[in-house]
Amino acid sequence: MNKTTLSSRISASLVGTLKHIKRDRQLLLLFLPCLVFYIIFRYGPLYGLIIAFKDYNVFEGIMGSKWVGLKHFIKFFSSNDFVLLFKNTLSLGFLTLIFGFPIPILLAISLNELRVKWLKKSIQTLTYLPAFLSVVIICSMVIDFLSPGTGLINKLIAALGFEKIYFLIMPEWFRTIYVSSDIWATMGYEAIIYLAAIAGINPTLYEAARVDGCSRLKSLWHITIPSLMPTILIMFILKTGSMIRIGYEKVLLLYTPTTYDVADVFSTYVYRKGLIESNYSYAAAVGMFEALVAMTMLLSANFISKKAGGKGLW
């Protein structure tokens, strides 16, 4: 390829790009705040990861602090906290994925099959309502429901003749409470994604199935579920990638000193070490390790999904 041909191709490409920008300028303008947000709050802070390899001192700054290499990573991997944190984070993430992932799918399919409109709208509104509530409110409601003195659950247990259970201070109950509350808080919001996917299915497929004498159950099995599979796979990949990145807010609000052994996860550990103990470099190293594990799981899930079903995020 000579220089003239290469130059003409580059010029044609630039002209095409400018035409696309001009054509989609309104959409690009709407996208601009999102782009700015990610540059400032997602990519900008990546510079601060350098402190994971330094003994960071606030007064000396990032570049002025002493370089120590993998010191903080080695310290974390050799500590007793590493195995406990990894086990707790993976357990909570895995249980949330296994029990929480199918619920929105089943809810969306059930709502789609429901023919009583007012009941369908009522159920959808009630299940979607927790999405408008903050994590603090959700956790406050959970604490109130499970209170041994005035909690609705314990009142019901006492009415049935059983002894009240101190749920929040019993380690064996923490994971059940965390996973159940997470399902309750997110199932309605996530079901909307699957309802939108169901709405996009060609109605003629169902009409053809009815003409062939296919029952609603068979139509569900042979049309609805296969049509949902691309959306299910993408959501599964995203869920797998975020499985280990458990937010510290909910755990921090629900756990107590008696449940540390089963509730303490990477994010709460980073919060304690970084913000409370001011050990910024060590906390950055732990957070970086958590992010690398999450990225590895996301890439693995995407690879397996493409090999198994031919669909992936990229």
Would you spell out the secondary-structure blueprint of this structure?
Elements: H1 3-23, H2 25-43, E1 54-57, H3 61-64, E2 65-67, H4 71-77, H5 80-100, H6 102-113, H7 117-128, H8 135-146, H9 152-159, H10 171-199, H11 203-211, H12 216-241, H13 248-254, H14 260-263, H15 266-276, H16 280-309
How would you explain this protein's 3D organization?
- The protein is 74% helix and 2% strand.
- The chain has 314 residues and is mostly helical.
- The chain has a two-stranded antiparallel ribbon.
- The longest helix is centred in the last third of the chain and has 30 residues, at 280-309.
Describe this protein with a few key phrases.
16 helices, 314 residues, mainly alpha, two-stranded antiparallel ribbon
What percent of residues adopt helix (DSSP H or I)? over 70%
Order of helices and strands: HHEHEHHHHHHHHHHHHH
Q: Strand pairing plus helix content: what structural class?
A: mainly alpha
Let me know the average pLDDT: 87
Radius of gyration, Cα only, in angstroms?
25 Å
Question: Which regions are unreliable across 5 or more consecutive residues at pLDDT < 50?
Answer: none
Apparent shape = flat
What strand line-up does the widest sheet have? Answer: 1-2
Could you give a short account of the major beta sheet? 2 strands, antiparallel
Q: Note the total helix count.
A: 16
In what range is the share of β-strand residues? Answer: under 5%
Q: Report how far the terminal alpha carbons are from each other.
A: 31 Å
Q: How many strand segments? A: 2
